[in-house]
Amino acid sequence: MKIVTPDAMRKIEDEYINGYGMDSFALMETAVISIMKHVNIKDRNIVVVCGFGNNAGDALGVARHLIVLHKIVKIFICSNGRELSRDCIKNMNILYKMNASIEFIRKTEDLNSLNKSISESDVVIDGLFGTGLSRQLDTYYTDIIKSINTYSKYVLSIDIPSGMNGENGYIMGECVKANKTVALQFYKKCFFCDKAKNYTGDVVVESLGIPKEISEKYDEKVYTSDEITDKILPKRNKYSHKGTFGRTTIAAGSEKYTGAAYIAAQAAVKTGAGLVTLATSKEQVPIMQSKLAEAMICDYEDKYFVEIIKKSNVVACGPGLDSNDSSLKIVEEVITNSECPIVFDADAINVLSAHKELLFGRKEKNIVLTPHPGEMARFCGCSIEDVNNKRIEIAKNTAIETNCIIVLKGYNTVITDGEKIFINTTGSSAMASGGMGDCLTGIVTGLISQGLDPFKASVLGVYIHGFIGDSLSKQMYSVTATDIINKISLYLKEFES
Ligand SMILES: NC(=O)C1=CN([C@@H]2O[C@H](COP(=O)(O)OP(=O)(O)OC[C@H]3O[C@@H](n4cnc5c(N)ncnc54)[C@H](O)[C@@H]3O)[C@@H](O)[C@H]2O)[C@@H](O)CC1
Ligand SMILES: [K+]
After folding, report:
1. Where are the domains of the chain?
2. Nearest CA to ligand 1 atom 15
3. Which segments of 176-240 are extended strands (E)?
4. Which of 86, 126, 236, 250 has the fewest CB atoms found within 10 Å of its own CB?
């Protein structure tokens, strides 16, 4: 599913109306009908809070339909003296003809009536601002939003919770806390910013029937992962053998950390990598030999390590490494001895943040970096807060700067090659446990091993990882990396072409 900025949405709408000749009020009515699907038919008392633009126009259209359905509807127009948009006026005039209850909020005392109506209502329809919100709100609007948040039982926001900047998710003073947001035609970019989930509630996207030719013209190449994850895993040919599914090397683990190496290697095995070799620290070799039945084991000092890197179809490096000089040596060895795709995770990324030059000069864009926000911040030399505030931009800029694929982990993981951006929608806090990142590295590596290009493998790997977690969390309070590993091959069947 496409994700758009308010600017792109405006251009798309403009072209449909002014270029293709679509009637703007008909388009608004399409929005109204689709929003109506999300109003609980059992609710009787409904308050509709409007601003003065087309978001308000949508809300007034919804009010009209609710009155026709014999609901008790109280409409509040919060324009603060501004002129209403043309289609907003059209809906308001129809409502006046229907003798609807319409009040204008002009001064602070008018808020008493709003507060009382909201507290007596079952649901509030929020049509204050949508994609048009562009500046900080004054106290007139922040007070209204506070009223909604204080007195409402349930809020349905139209397009965007009012108060959230549609482009960057910034809260422009105050923001409606919706239970559900009905986004029109596309996801808005703000939904995937750090704090958006605290305000949007459940997000549903409703089509306005805008033709693809128009939306493709203003494609900003930002999508949710489900755009490409369906059926992209190649079917396994019955005559294939282990060589068909690739040779994978996992360089992971140190004297200090053992679990990570095991999880990453086992995840790659279970994802279907043909031949997996785990290179690890000398001390770990005997332990891993007893734990990993299906993988070969060597140590970093072994001359076989470089040989196997050279022969590999993919190398993963980083889980359970330490951020010391011996890790730098391992990272260098991996980069200088391979032309195949590499997935760098954890301390390998920390090492690389001080040696970015190692990433430059590759023929193909086939290095994947999978930082969590802390690693991303270190890599970019900024704060974690900066990363969280600008996840998409920071991931994209780093991908461009390093010529790598960036998988910025966290809620709504961002995957980008610097041009296209995919935002993952699977996964939840039930998966917040140690080893999950190592498991993801193993899955992405296992997919690349089987021939998927590194970018698609990253998008699909992140999606599957979260998808399994989501499925398991329906029956489990918390989900561990081992739980995921045990189910990978079962769930992968669903993604086969
Ligand atoms: N894009 C589309 O195809 C469609 C959009 N529709 C609706 O139209 C909405 C956008 O409507 P508008 O562009 O009229 O904008 P809004 O209704 O979101 O906002 C109204 C106006 O508020 C002003 N404004 C911005 N920041 C402000 C602030 N801090 N304080 C006071 N005023 C401020 C802006 O000038 C803006 O035009 C969408 O979110 C959606 O709900 C629908 O009617 C159907 C079609
Ligand atoms: K809204």
Report:
1. 3-219, 227-495
2. 132
3. 180-184, 187-188, 202-206, 222-224
4. 86
CATH class in words for 227-495? alpha beta
Encode pLDDT of 295-340 as tens digits: 899 999 998 999 999 999 999 999 999 877 889 999 999 999 999 9
- Nearest-5° Cα angle at 420, 18 to 164: 60
Instruction: Kindly state if the Cβ of 35 falls inside 6 Å of ligand 1.
Output: no
- Binding site feature residues for K(+): 55, 126, 162
Q: End-to-end alpha-carbon separation of the chain, Å?
A: 19
pLDDT, tens digit (0-9, with 9 covering 90-100), for 436-487: 999 999 999 999 999 999 999 999 999 999 999 999 999 998 899 999 999 9
Sign, Cα dihedral of 160, 162, 164, 167: positive
The rounded distance, in Å, linking the Cα atoms of 456 and 32 is 37
Name the percent of the chain lying above pLDDT 70: 98
The sign of the CA dihedral 481, 485, 488, 490 is: negative
Locate 335 and state its tokens: 């980069």
Nearest ligand 1 atom to the CA of 210 is: 3
Task: Name the residue of 128, 131, 139 to mutate for ligand 1: max ligand atoms within 8 A of Cβ.
Answer: 131
pLDDT at 220 over 80: yes
> Which atom of ligand 1 is nearest to 172's Cα?
29
Q: How far apart are CA 137 and CA 176, in angstroms?
A: 12
CA 98 to chain centre: 43
- CATH superfamily, domain 3-219, is YjeF N-terminal domain (3.40.50.10260)
